[in-house]
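Table S2 (text version). Query chain:
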Amino acid sequence: MNRDRFGNPERILCAAIYVDTGKPEPARMSYAYPKTGIVFCGWRHGDCFVPLLDWKHRLTHQEVEAIEAIMPHQLRGRRQGFLTSCGRFVDRRDGWAIAVAAGQVEDDDHNMLVSEDLY
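Corresponding structure-token output:
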């Protein structure tokens, strides 16, 4: 089990969408933040789309092509997951396991976390 910088067990903080641009983007405050790309965070995944789409519309055609070459359709929010208390972006499956271990959700037949499970 991962622990945050205060020694607490890792928890799910919020919904997130990850876009891998192939290059370092903003300055990193967390040692675990993805090495390349941007993580857009929000209360629900729908809240992540507003800044994602605003950012996308500011990109040049060449930048969009380069990003889509890494993974098609990622600028449409294809890589949805969560941000953890350790600064990690995790997918929905890993998010479920972390939320169960942290006692944020009860273990049942789910295997993928959605933000509605949390709040």
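Notes on Table S2: DSSP finds three helices and four strands in the chain. The radius of gyration is 15 Å.
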